[in-house]
Amino acid sequence: MEIQEILESLKAGKTSVKNAKKLLSLYSIEEIEEFAKIDINRRKRRGIPEVIFAETKELEEIKKIIEKTLEKTNSVIISRIKKKDYQKIITFSKKLKVKIEIGKNSSSLLLFKKPIKFHGGKVGILTAGTSDIGVAEESRLMCEAMNCRCITSYDVGVAGIQRIFPVLKKMIKEDVDCIIVAAGMEGALATLVSTMVDIPIIGIPTSAGYGYGGKGIAALASMLQSCSLGLSVVNIDNGIAAGGIAANIANRAKKSK
């Protein structure tokens, strides 16, 4: 529906104020010069915060998007910041007097104005190796921005399979609603975890690996070909997507409890 139709429908009593507000929120876009259109109501509409993919953006563009987004919302994630821009963005964010959550071994940041309340669901996050932590941390930042509490355990892959059992025991005890598994090489950890729990699993194939099948290709193929049901898979190194899906699952589970 166009804005005029929504308003006429409201005036005629054909729709409620609540529904009209929801429909109008679809038109809430903040334009920044001629290079960006910010969907500032995405959080209200979908529960998902604004994410800036910084890898292909200029520093000044990133700064302007950060500033405009934080004028209208409480938080923003900056993903895949170029090495030369990383410290500059932190310095700029401090000038805005916002809080900064830094992803370990990651080039991503979560900026927020008011403390985030973890009133959503619970998400477990695992990595097969230390090389996978940066991707997993993107997922953590996304989940926390969506009010989920995260329980993490890193470097618990199949090269030392005994490491995974106490970790899973803890996650089951904590009653996590979803588990994210980031794994490179052959990506076996995602299948292994999904065979042992009755919890939705989201696999992230990472680009850690050698030669043939490297750059995440073998891990992606392995996860896609998994014979264990209950495992879904996102694209290579896409921690942001995995975090968004996991948090949506966890938050909906929380509502139904």
Provide a descriptive summary of the structure in words.
It is a single chain. The protein is α/β, with parallel strands linked by helices and 257 residues long. It has 2 domains: 34-112, Translation Initiation Factor IF3, CATH 3.30.110; 122-256, Rossmann fold (3-Layer(aba) Sandwich), CATH 3.40.50. The protein has helices at 3-11, 17-25, 42-46, 59-72, 83-95, 133-145, 164-173, 188-194, 217-224, 239-256, and strands spanning 29-32, 36-39, 50-53, 75-79, 99-102, 109-112, 122-127, 149-153, 178-183, 201-205, 231-233. The strands form 3 sheets. It has a 5-stranded parallel β-sheet, with helices on both faces. The protein has a 4-stranded mixed β-sheet with strand order 3-4-6-5, with helices on both faces. Strands 1-2 form a two-stranded antiparallel sheet. Helix 1 runs antiparallel to helix 2, helix 4 (59-72) packs parallel to helix 5 (83-95) and helix 6 crosses helix 10 (239-256). Pfam families: AIRC.
